[in-house]
Amino acid sequence: MTTNSVKGIILDVDGVIIGEKAGFNFPDPHPEVVAKLRQVRKRGIPIALCTAKPQFSISRLIKKIGLDNYHIADGGGVIINPVQNKIVKKNLINSRLAKNIIQYFLDKNVYTEFYTVSDYVIQKNQISQITAKHTPILLKKPRVVKSLADEVLKSKITKIILVAKDEEDKKRIIKLLKPFAEKLNLYWGLHPSALPLQFGVLTAPGVSKRNGAVEIAKNMKVSFKNMLGVGDAKGDWEFIRLCQYRAAMGNAKQDLKDLVLAKDREFSFIGPSVNENGIIKILEHFI
After folding, report:
1. Measured between alpha carbons, how far is 213 from 239 in angstroms, rounded to an integer?
2. Running DSSP on this structure, what letter comes out for residue 236?
3. Residue 202: which of 168, 165, 147, 163 has the closest Cα?
4. What is the DSSP letter of 222?
5. pTM, whole model, 2 decimals?
6. In what order do the strands lie in the sheet with 268-270?
7. Does domain 8-90+207-286 have CATH number 3.40.30.10?
8. How far is CA 44 from the centre of its chain?
9. 55, 82 in Cβ contact below 8 A?
10. Where are the alpha helices (DSSP H) in 78-189?
11. Residue 143: which of 153, 131, 133 has the closest Cα?
12. What residue ranges of the chain are covered by domains with CATH 3.30.1240.10?
């Protein structure tokens, strides 16, 4: 299918344009992917990145490609335009609530990080292989403190990350989160280079990729009827479901593929995997 109706694009990052193959598509996208994104942007189609990553992990890439528009970081916690050096919105978590949650999960032996706009923080006694896997993904070393809970009240927190060691540990963390279900928004993400680790992203109530996408669409002045959404995890369905044009990567979870193909198949597409530079095929399919 070919169409000229796509006038804006919202993309997840990890598993979509960044993969797991060091020197090929990690820590940066493959040069052919970068070239294709630049080509699409030069045609006047804005491309917004929508990720659970912090802004300091994606700003360099956004500037490199020249994506001069709003982008979604921290799972919707931060809306930014790094090209113009603008932080458009920060949605902060209440500090006392954050302290209680962080101490609770530390006591349950869950690897826990908190994020501000400029850095991320971990507790010294939690440094482990998880830290070693997460650091190259974020392109920045964490700030290490003796007590994470004590540091909270000195910080303006955009998100908390709880790291599950595997699918079973994810189920355990979800059960532990029940007392806080209405106090924070939860989104699960993953990175191909860190599997089987999964990342539970906690943001302030009402903060999500979906709501971030709504704000992005307004800024682009593009209707969702003319928007393409692309992701690789079920959590990306938050924003993809808003878009008339929908795609999932070949490496996407089956549940996301099923959702993408559930209706309006003429507007839906499953591309090759991220390690095959599948986003290029997806963009060529729709544009």
Report:
1. 6
2. G
3. 163
4. -
5. 0.90
6. 47-49, 8-11, 227-231, 245-248, 268-270
7. no
8. 24
9. yes
10. 95-107, 129-138, 148-152, 167-176
11. 131
12. 95-203
Question: 78, 119, 56, 287: which is closest to 203 by C-alpha?
Answer: 78
CATH 3.40.50.1000 residue ranges for the chain? 8-90+207-286
Render pLDDT for 85-140 as a digit per residue (tens, 0 to 9): 999 999 999 999 999 999 999 999 999 999 999 999 999 999 999 999 999 999 99
In this structure, are residues 68 and 81 in contact, taking their beta carbons and an 8 Å threshold?
yes
Report the DSSP beta bridge partners of residue 100: none
Please tell me what DSSP assigns to residue 166. Answer: S
**CB 106: neighbour CB atoms within 10 A?**
17
Question: How many CB atoms neighbour CB 204 within 10 A?
Answer: 21
The architecture CATH gives domain 95-203: 2-Layer Sandwich (3.30)
13-68, pLDDT tens digit by residue? 999 999 999 999 999 999 999 999 999 999 999 999 999 999 999 999 999 999 99
